[in-house]
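Input.
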Amino acid sequence: MAGKCWRDRPGLGAAAYGAAGATAYGRVASGQHTPRQAASGAMIGIGFGAASLGIGTDRAEISFGLRF
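Output.
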């Protein structure tokens, strides 16, 4: 997902995935969630993102300049 948003700046996509992973790890480490809950949340997020952004389409664009 993040890689499609910032195709011309792959470091931003990697940072977005890193931040999401660090958040999930922090929630599991602090006891707020189980690993299964964190993995489920990741899958739900990826699924909704793919559905709403039209993954598989060729370069849909939105008005504030991000290309998908």
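The helical segments are 2-5, 10-29, 35-53.
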